[in-house]
């Protein structure tokens, strides 16, 4: 497949990728994306006060390869698990949206359809729906034949991404020297992680980089191994087969590929299991006949409710958490569970009032 150095703009002109990133329309689009649902934040208001000047600076920094990533702001999140987030100021987010606007369509057309993370029209709920459909279809047409699954995820994925490997994968697709220099600068700016390893969770471009990195794994599994029932969401993936020995062979070859080609390791929890016992994936327990919210998700939301009761969080914070959780739980068979959680939350809010 040919490497990309130029695209055609809306007027039919052939322009470099760097020119496309610095296009006035693209910069405005990047700004609109970056401020979505954040327009009242202090850094957004400061940027917007001198919007035209700042957008001109974004454009010049990109076109002239003068962009230097700012210092990260570090904080931790604890749901669904503890993670360190490295966030950049609003200016940097505008720059990175401008970069992603151009690169995402180029890479997306090369990704396999069963890659579901951070892609338009995909996402965790679509991934869950696909796995549920596969299990339902198998149970419908092969009711007496067992089905088995590899349930795998990668150990400390974002922290383990090798910069040299990532740059090589990007260069298989992109040939614009200016864009490559810009991306190298962003990749190498990895905060408090060791030199040459790791990309920040929270960096906008990291989502795209993470998909680019594991596209090599997707291509290996689909085309080298010939696996049909394979689905991935970020660093979690599932493979289905009625042949346990085949799954064992695939798992060994995938583990070798990850280690030798991508310098990654499986999480020790990676396992092979009988699909009838349920498959944990993207926050749900999947079976052929139904889908349930994972038990650890229920435990977390109950802990959040207790925090409101004890005054550790405000009722507004609890309401926001409940809204998010019920939205997620609503994609599972969870009507009675949601009513129970909502009742507990209401009681906690009354107690805290």
From TrEMBL:
GO molecular function list: RNA-directed DNA polymerase activity
Reverse transcriptase domain segment(s): 56-286
InterPro entries given in the database record: DNA/RNA_pol_sf (IPR043502), GrpII_Intron_Splice-Mob/Def (IPR051083), RT_dom (IPR000477)
Native species: Roseburia yibonii
Lineage, uppermost ranks: Bacteria, Bacillati, Bacillota, Clostridia, Lachnospirales
Name under which the protein is recorded: Group II intron reverse transcriptase domain-containing protein
Keywords: Nucleotidyltransferase, RNA-directed DNA polymerase, Transferase
Stored PROSITE patterns: RT_POL (PS50878)
Pfam families per record: RVT_1
């Amino acid at each position: 497949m040919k490497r990309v150095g130029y695209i055609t703009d809306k007027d039919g002109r052939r322009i470099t990728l760097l020119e496309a990133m610095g296009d006035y329309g693209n910069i405005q689009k990047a700004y609109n994306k970056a401020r979505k649902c954040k327009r009242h934040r202090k850094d957004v208001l400061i940027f917007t006060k001198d919007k035209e000047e700042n957008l001109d600076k974004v454009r010049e920094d990109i076109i002239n390869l003068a962009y230097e990533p700012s210092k990260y702001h570090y904080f931790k999140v604890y749901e669904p698990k503890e993670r360190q987030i490295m966030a950049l100021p609003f200016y940097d987010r505008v720059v990175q949206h401008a970069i992603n606007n151009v690169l995402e369509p180029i890479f997306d057309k090369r990704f396999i359809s069963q890659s579901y993370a951070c892609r338009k029209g995909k996402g965790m709920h679509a991934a869950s729906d696909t796995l549920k459909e596969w299990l339902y279809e198998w149970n419908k047409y092969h009711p007496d034949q067992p089905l088995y699954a590899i349930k795998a995820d990668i150990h400390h994925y974002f922290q383990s991404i090798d910069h040299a490997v990532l740059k090589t994968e990007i260069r298989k697709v992109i040939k614009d020297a200016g864009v490559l220099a810009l991306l190298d600068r962003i990749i190498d700016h990895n905060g408090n992680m060791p030199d040459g390893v790791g990309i920040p969770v929270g960096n906008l471009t990291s989502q795209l980089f993470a998909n680019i990195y594991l596209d090599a794994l997707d291509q290996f599994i689909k085309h080298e191994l010939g696996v049909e029932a394979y689905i991935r969401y970020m660093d979690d993936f599932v493979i289905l087969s009625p042949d346990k020995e085949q799954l064992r062979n695939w798992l060994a070859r995938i583990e070798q590929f990850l280690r030798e080609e991508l310098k990654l390791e499986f999480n020790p929890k990676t396992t092979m299991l009988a699909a009838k016992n349920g498959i944990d994936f993207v926050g749900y327990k999947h079976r052929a006949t139904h889908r349930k919210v994972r038990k650890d998700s229920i435990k977390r939301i109950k802990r959040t409710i207790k925090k409101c009761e004890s005054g550790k969080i405000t009722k507004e914070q609890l309401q926001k958490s409940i809204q998010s959780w019920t939205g997620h739980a609503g994609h599972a068979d969870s009507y009675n569970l949601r009513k129970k959680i909502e009742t507990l939350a209401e009681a906690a809010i009354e107690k805290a009032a």
